[in-house]
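Reviewer comment 2.1 asked that we show a complete input and output for one of the modelled complexes. We chose the uridine-5'-diphosphate case, as it is the one discussed in the main text.
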Amino acid sequence: MLDLTPDRLVYEGKAKQVYRADNADEIVIHYKDDATAFNGVKKAQIADKGVINCKLSAFFMERMGAAGVPTAFLRQIGPRDQLCRKVEIIPVELVVRNVVAGSLAKRLGQPEGAKLARPLLEHFYKSDELNDPQINEEGAVLMGYAKAWELAAMREYSLIVNEQLQAFWGGLGVDLVDFKLEFGRFHGQVVLADEITPDGSRLWERGTGRKLDKDVFRRDLGDLSDTYREVYRRVFGESLPG
Ligand code: UDP
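Response of the prediction step:
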């Protein structure tokens, strides 16, 4: 049963709310239309973003499960709602990069767009107060953020996700430049959590370089709602109803 009464709200993030579910091992994730960038400094409401991202993430998480990556996703239970396993989020974000862009380009003073010979994995400590500083695996282990075996599992799963997503987007004529993943602990297992959406990915149309992701909002390149509708249309082969 989908019950989103305020007393069930357990957490509110920048783009999603988390509600208690009937089963103590599960939660309901509600996707909002809010978009934020630069750690919440830039904010806007993007029409239908929640509906689009909820369905996109459900679609990709199901595919990752089929490809052998354990995920927190169970099923979609409303237009912007998912039933998920209740995990303890591991405070280490994993960024997978196939092409130089974003903070990597900035940090190293390199232009965006150079293709990497193989995927580059980067780790960031998940902390809004600190602006998600980069950390290496040794540091993450010594600080107690994650166990070495958990980081190994995260690495292995991230590379599978990258192969799957690259193949999928490649089939649609879109280059997967980079993306961020979060993982959680569920009954002693590492599972893929959070979302797989254009909010946390860079997607460049092959040939034109058109951006089909949240950089459209971050960099004022156009209308993010229109962009996400376009992504929806390409992935599902039909326009978002309504
Ligand atoms: N990313 C994210 N959340 C973050 C930081 C990054 O989803 O807090 C995603 C971002 O959308 C991009 C990838 O991770 O697809 C790499 O981001 P980068 O480190 O280049 O940082 P950015 O330039 O987005 O600040």
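The longest strand covers residues 174-186. We note this here for comparison with the apo prediction described in Section 3.2.
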